[in-house]
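Justification of computing resources. Each target in the renewal requires a structure prediction run like the one illustrated here; the chain below, 75 residues long, is used simply to show the kind of job we budget for.
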Amino acid sequence: MEMNKIEALKLYKQYFTEKDFEDFLNSPYIAEDSDDFEDYYPEGTPNLFSKEKSYLTFTAYKLNENTLSITLENK
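Resulting structure tokens:
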């Protein structure tokens, strides 16, 4: 599902208390076709965040500066 940063943070806080998602939200979005992306992130993407609990996986992908795609998967 697509949502903005505030909505995504509210959803994250329903399941997790760690602050690492807030750090991810505050980090810059880097377009995958930019030189910065290939130069600084050759093995992955800075736009992806994933966190797991024993019963749930929370995944966020930055679509742009303000919009994320969020996936919640039950284990």
